[in-house]
Amino acid sequence: MKHFLNELISAGNRRKNFFLLLVVLVSSAMLQAQNIAVSGIVKDVTGEPLPGVNIMEKGTTNGTITDVDGKFTLSVKGTNAVLTVSFVGYAPQEISVKGKRNLDVTLKEDTELLDEVVVVGYATQKKATVAAAVSSVNNKDLTRSTSTSAANALVGKVSGITARQKSGQPGTSTNLEIRNMGTPLYVIDGIMKDETAFNALDIHDIENVSILKDGAAAIYGVKAANGVVLITTKTGKKGQKPQINLNAHMGWQGWTKYPELLNAYQWKWGNYMKQANDGNLTGADNIANAKADLEKWRTGYYNPATGEDYRGYDWKDNFVSNAAPQYYVNANISGGTEKTDYYISVGHIDQDAVFKEYNYNRTNLQANFNMQLTDKFKVGFQTLGKIEQNVNPALPGGDDYFQMRNSIFNLIPTMRPYANDNPDYLNYITPTHDGARNMAAYTIDNAGKHQKDFRTIQLSANLEYKTPLPGLTAKGLLSYYYETLHQTDNEKSWNEYRYDPATQEYKVASTKTDTYRGDVRNHKVEMMGQFTLNYDHIFAKDHHVTAVAGFEFFKEDRKYLTVAQSPVENPFVENITTNANNTVSNSVRTITTASFIFRAGYSYKEKYIIDFAGRYDASWRFLPGNQWGFFPSVSGAWRLSEEEFYKDSKVADWISSIKLRASYGEMGDDMARNFNSSYPDFAYLPGYAFNNGGAIISNNPLGNAPDAYTTGTAYKGIPQTGLSWMKISMMNVGFDMGFLNDRLKLEVDFFKRKRSGIPATPTDIIYPYEAGYSVQKQNLNSDQVSGIDGMVRWNDRVNDFNYFVGVNLTLARQKTINNYGEVFLNGWDQYRWAQTNRWSNVKNGAVWMWETIGVFQTQEEIDNYPVNIDGANNVNLRPGDLIFKDVNGDGLIDDYDKRPLGYAATDYDWDSGNANKNPLLSMGINLGFEYKGIDFAADFAGGFMNTFIGDWHVKYGIGTDQMGYVYNVIDSWQHEDIFDTKSPWKRGKFPAVRSNNPSIRDWNDFYAKEINYLRLRNLVAGYTLPIKWTKKALIQKLRVYFEGSNLLCWDSLNDFGFDPEISSVTGFDYPQHKVYTVGVNVTF
To answer: Can you give the pTM of this predicted structure?
Structure first.
């Protein structure tokens, strides 16, 4: 009985336990299905609360944001919920609830992560493990600028970049180079593009920019000989609620620096002085009349009844604005779900020039969409679009902006724009120097309209598949690009008048008859495909192996058509009708390339790092057999600070990281950019050139039939079969160091690029003149660029005060190694003209000039001077003229006394102005701080070791048919009484104004100024309103700011008054803009 009762009790316990377990399981399941309130606080790394942070339950649309104290409460579905925490400027985090009710979250700033990861060839890599010379810039640094071009926003913010912005004309950009090696390759989201495409990007759509400066660029092959700029655009973030960002600003523009022009009285005074100095103003009556005339110009005498008008006119002040408007707006939305992310952006810039009716505008569209289809497959789509337009008056000549600048510099201030000041009648002005005409005629209604519409669209798709082999991923990318340009010009005729005060009539004095109408259409299609296998795997925790292998192809088709008519048959009909005045031309071009790429990398404990890369490229430009080239590179690094013996040393307490790097790469250049004229398309094929001139051939010797024009055909000559790739070898050694827990960072690189096989014509091969052939070019010459670049940057935070300051420097100079076939008759010719083993500042003798060693103070000094300076025993010299050094001591100043003075920075021929390209030494300074919603930043950029060579207006000063500058007329050597050449001389900075002055008859260093400048490119101050003020309006962040561009410039061209980055010897360039901007950033 007892046994039975025990079994019964045990069975009851088992049933009880079973029911209890069942209750627990049911309760747990119910609990999982129930909503749970989770609270928490979100802080930054300093412990400060972050308001406005997105808190999302992963896989749902359920979410909230933190309040002003960084706190939040969110009801989630069960204890297994995962929260996604994200905030602008910070790296997102995923946090599992796991039964927690209170969470304490710390977010790291995104800029820290960007510093750790950079984009390299066909991959991304930790900054700490990069063995190549790579610089990077993030979006926060780029968008400190309100520039309309990405290149301008990049200047001064990264080492290795050399730049010069020669023009501030709307729609133009900075001439950007890497280490003064030439125009780099641009790769935007894996697709090779050019500088135009880069500058067309909206900087708010750029996530980061990486610059490959050394041989690691070899993986991009033939187009990468001058370095590579890698651009990554923005994408959305998975698990993030939709976030809307609005960026808008308005600015007012004016020229930075411009030489002061003479007013009417000064211009008259200068011309009378010049006449007197030339001996052309003599006789009491002539001098008296000149003085009386000058007095009227001084007082501005005006008599409407007689038409006497001595009022001056300031053409620059009346036709150049100091507050031309500029507008910009960008709106983007980003976000994502558990498996998708998206980013959609629209931006628009509208920029007026300082000239009336000159406008540039651009609209950008970008859409990035990515989806995780399965655990293995991921797909992405991208759309990039641009609509760009330039509108301005259509003026004679090819450059409508030049005509405006030319008129400003050359229109005489004694002239006025309207007859009798009546704006209905253009005043007749005799065309002055360089054909400058009445600027008042330069309006769209009067002169006609120039309009250029440029539209592009790029569609790309990428697919990624994770193979069953761990670490191996297959990737495919396909891109389609379409570009169309439509340009129309309609140059009309107009009348200019003279007013007769006696009859009060306006009479036509001149009619512009050189009318023109043109229509240009350009279409381009690009197709690019890329397939790669990417391997990334870590073995035994310490061995990290990466590899890339793939194939890439590219094809471009371009069509160009232009139709023109001059003179225009019917000015009232915009269509170009068929007549004998028409000209039609068109061209068709196809380019194809193919490439195989590979890359392999290995690191042990992220301490010893080595990378191999290469590319097998084919170019359509060469004869079969020479079309393929292989371009390898290798780079290695040693992170000394990761060694155990170093970590245990006292040095590690203040030098927190040390990395030593070295790289070598070989690349090719098919001369597609820099040497196109040396090697035209299909020059390796024999054949004939059509439409090569022509002749009138009579159909009937008796003259009773019309003659016929027969188009000529010529033999192309001997095919260029010997040319192949230019070969480039690039070496780089450098080191990276971090001090005081990496708050202070230092990067330094030493580099040398040697280029061989530069096309040249052999001088020791001569064909008979009668043959009519030219000697074929061969790969003969070589040069090198060598230098150093580096940066130092300090970042720190003291409580709420976060600040930074950084400096970067780049010194790069070119040297000619070999110039084939140099033969000279004597030592002087060799010294004067040889280029072999010489720095590029003596290239083509462009900067050979006389050295100025003083200025003559008295006529007695001139009469007793032993050196013949003017070639006529100094009879043409006057006090204030320059004294040139007699280098060879023969007592005569001639070509044998010229020396190579000044700098030149690149291998290209100097531009038409003989002014330099990029400076040899470039510098940037960046500093800023953030404190409780207040932010401030300043970016400086400088250039040193450069030369400006002035000519024409800079030297000659003034003329009866041209304007003049104040500095070289008013501040010139002159007589105390300008009408009396026997009166004492007054000293000035510049030689006396007169014709045929020996001081200006040839190149000399007095008018060749060394350019050194430091420019405040950007200064921005902003304030972010507290979220407690904005959250009721559903605004997560509201920032207002002021930004100034090119506010200050310290330079060595003060004597001339020019912007230090101009290039023209006359100073006719369109200077950069000084811009004052107010703007707002809003995040919803």
So the answer is: 0.84
